């Protein structure tokens, strides 16, 4: 039986955000990372979602907050240990997402061999656009993503450049954890990631489909 919850508001009730790192070769190169031989995965909590009209909050412990614009794939029905051939049947739609990253914190975590929660999973670390129904996207591997900061173009890339395509990602992830309706997969970021600071205006979009705007605010240190 279909869920009574509207998929168009997945950010209100979806449980899991699965993120794919280094899925664009040029981004891996700019970060001085080797190309992955299999998907590099990490999670964000669903409470990390933030919608247009509310700010992206730079954590008090972060001195270097980076933007990463990504195509989000919204799961439309449960997928567990499925093949790539049927994976797209489990897609309900898409969204534009930002993977906000406390880069200085991430580098410290890497050096110490620690998880990335502080770097990737903080409050407002996943800005998200409106939902785009699957029917409006004939080919998700032919979408142009872009991001500007204060009017300056920082990121521009095409989803055709993904190392691991969407059906493979869904199949791979569903073999590890069941993907539920309302879950989202962030499919990786093209090159051009850079820092943002308090009061910066981020504008991003999927060409021909949608745009979003978010302002950056600063979390004050707790005393």
How would you concisely characterize the structure shown here?
The protein is an alpha+beta fold. The chain has a single domain, classed as Alpha-Beta Complex (Fumarylacetoacetate hydrolase, domain 2).
Characterise this structure.
It is built from six helices and 16 strands. With about 220 residues, it is α+β, with helices and mostly antiparallel strands. The protein has one domain: Alpha-Beta Complex (Fumarylacetoacetate hydrolase, domain 2). The strands form four sheets. Strands 2-1-13-6-7-10 form a six-stranded mixed beta sheet, with helices on one face. The chain has a five-stranded mixed beta sheet with strand order 4-16-15-11-12, with no helix packed on it. The longest helix has 10 residues. This is Oxaloacetate tautomerase FAHD1, mitochondrial. It holds the Pfam family FAA_hydrolase. Its EC number is 3.7.1.5, 4.1.1.112, 5.3.2.2.
């Amino acid at each position: 039986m279909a869920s009574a919850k509207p998929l168009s508001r997945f950010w209100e009730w979806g449980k899991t955000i699965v993120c794919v790192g280094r899925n664009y070769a040029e981004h891996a190169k700019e970060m001085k990372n080797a190309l992955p031989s299999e998907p590099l995965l990490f999670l964000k909590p669903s409470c990390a979602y933030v919608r247009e009209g509310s700010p992206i909050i730079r954590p008090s412990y972060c001195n270097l907050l980076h933007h990463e614009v990504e195509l989000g794939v919204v799961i439309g029905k449960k997928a567990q240990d499925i093949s790539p051939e049927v994976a797209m049947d489990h897609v309900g739609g898409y969204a534009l997402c930002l993977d906000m990253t406390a880069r200085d914190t991430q580098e410290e975590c890497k050096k110490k061999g620690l998880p990335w929660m502080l770097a990737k999973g903080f409050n407002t670390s996943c800005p998200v656009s409106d939902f785009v129904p699957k029917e409006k996207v004939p080919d998700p591997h032919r979408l142009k993503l872009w991001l500007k900061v204060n009017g300056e173009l920082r990121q521009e890339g095409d989803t055709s450049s993904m190392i691991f395509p969407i059906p493979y990602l869904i199949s791979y992830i569903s073999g590890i954890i069941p993907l539920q309706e309302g879950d989202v997969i962030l499919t990786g970021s093209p090159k051009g990631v850079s820092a943002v600071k308090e009061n910066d205006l981020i504008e991003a979009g999927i060409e021909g489909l949608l745009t979003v705007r978010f302002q950056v605010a600063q979390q004050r240190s707790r005393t």
